[in-house]
Amino acid sequence: MSAQEERSALVPRPSLYAYALRLHRGEPGGRLPARGYELPPRLKLTGKRPGWAEACEALEAVLKPWLTPPDDAAPDEARPGRGDVARAAEEIHRGLRELEVRDRHVQYVVSGAAIDDEDRARALGRCLVRTGTAPLPVCVGLALLARFGEPEDVPYLKVLGQLRDLTDLAVLALDGIDRPMAALVWLGHYIEEPEQRGLVDALAAGDEDAVLRCLVALPRGMRSSGTTRVRRIIEATRLVDVLRAQRLPEDPSAAELLAWSGQLLLWTASLHDDRAEILRYPEAMDAYGAFVAHAAELPPGVDHYALLLSVALELHGGPSRLLDWEPGRREALLDALESVLNRPEWKAVVPDGDPEGSRSPGPDPESDAAAGHRRRVDWIRRTARRPFRRVTGPEERLRFECFERDPGDWGGAETRILFDGRPLVPEVFDRGPANSPAHLLDGGLLRATDEPREVQLAEAYCAEGCCGALYVTIRRDGDQVVWSDWRLPAWWDSPELPERRFDAAAYDAEVARAENDHSWASPAYRTARLIAAGLRDRPDLLTRWDVRLHWISSDFRNRDCTDVSLLYRTEPDSGQGPDTGQNRATGQGREEDFRRQRMWHIPVDGTSPEERAAAALRRLATEDPRTYG
After folding, report:
1. Coil, strand, or helix at residue 477?
2. Do 123 and 85 form a contact (C-beta atoms < 8 A)?
3. pLDDT for 191-247, tens place per residue?
4. In what order do the strands lie in the sheet containing 414-419?
5. Pairing state of beta strands 500-503 and 453-459?
6. 255: CB partners within 8 A, 6+ apart
């Protein structure tokens, strides 16, 4: 042993808490470091990734003697005194020294451990958190405090959460004790963008006025950062308290804050590129209540009208419908929003007009602002009454509701499947929205026949191959229609979904109503539905060019455009193998061969959806779509 090694062995290691506290005290203004502090090099977790079962079994062998007393232990042995906590912590340090496991293994094992002495487990967690000198023992302490922590643990969890490898477990522990602090630690770690760091610094400094200024100044494009970030911002800023404290008549500038708060709530409910984080926000119902209480104080205008209507749509049939509402509370919020929008000053914002898009753009240039205003007005006219309709009786048992989101927001058309008024997809599969009407309704997939048919109801926002999809088998059984044999990803941790039975006549009537209702659709989406119907009737329009239809919809960002996604082969057919002769001529063959994509954009140009669809089909009949610009 060298002199340096001998000296290091004789000097006691500082705890990780002391190490993080020293670094944090060096930050000006108590700021939190983006991406956190690195662990000392000698303590970094290794990059090895053991198998799940192997890692959990090894952890249980080390932890079980100290977390769960043996069944045959005498009473005094089963309830060791406080002095034994330090010994347990030492033994856990020693036992974990050579293990190659990760923090997620620790959390899984500790969260499932049978612990019958909560006080002792809490004391052990605190000992490991405050005195632990290596990452894994501290992770065990954090996981214990995630179950049994109390407010006095918050300062220690906040400091340890600034260590890069301990952030997630520290936030998990804080979530159950001090949600705003958990959100602050999370934001401090994950937000790096300069235009958003100001909010983190203001929160860390406890400057309430600066927090509100920075909240309103957040970039409107931050939605792309994910709904988890939006939810954490809502929690860290204590948005419920902010809304309750607002006095709009005395402070006109607060209208911007109120409108922005409503937009943040809506984003947390979106399933289009993330999970519905609104369901993970404990104060969501209070936040909606506080927002709606001030809704009438917003200045009437198209943007604010679209915002209030979007909130109503979400409360009516979005993921927020699944919150644990007291009887009548959600309905009261919808009644309040309807009352606001029925006031003369709000009705004047969008005068009665043609909801079918008679104000579509013509050949003359139109500014982006004017186009956005027109699209929103047309959307309001098509959508204004939908969230306020009361469906009761047999119709409430099963309903298919199609809608498009506010054109000022991001997202496509969606088919909401409501069982007894509750949206099915976010309740059982929160990785993406229900599939579009073009997929579920226009192709007749929801129709029930004597032959069972498996139907994909929703696909993960990333891809089915990544996070899976939701399937159900639909069949007719005498005078009933049955939804059964639900299929979720194999790794999905949820109870088996029950079989659903519906009166066949009522089911057929509801499917026919949804298939024939086009009143909700924008001109661009109506064009998409008509083109898709034409291609179903004349598949040769694509197969003659050895092309397949991938998807067709209105543009997610520009509702004045119909997007057609076409797939064709990566390379021309070689004349060998399974894709020869007739296969190439008819667009048949292996799916993996069709990897090249051609996006065809069809703008709304002032003609009717029927005229645009007919023109598109005529072009396909005469011109190879692989050459389209």
Report:
1. strand
2. yes
3. 999 999 999 999 999 999 999 999 999 998 877 788 999 999 999 999 999 988 865
4. 398-403, 414-419, 422-423
5. unpaired
6. 248, 297, 298, 299
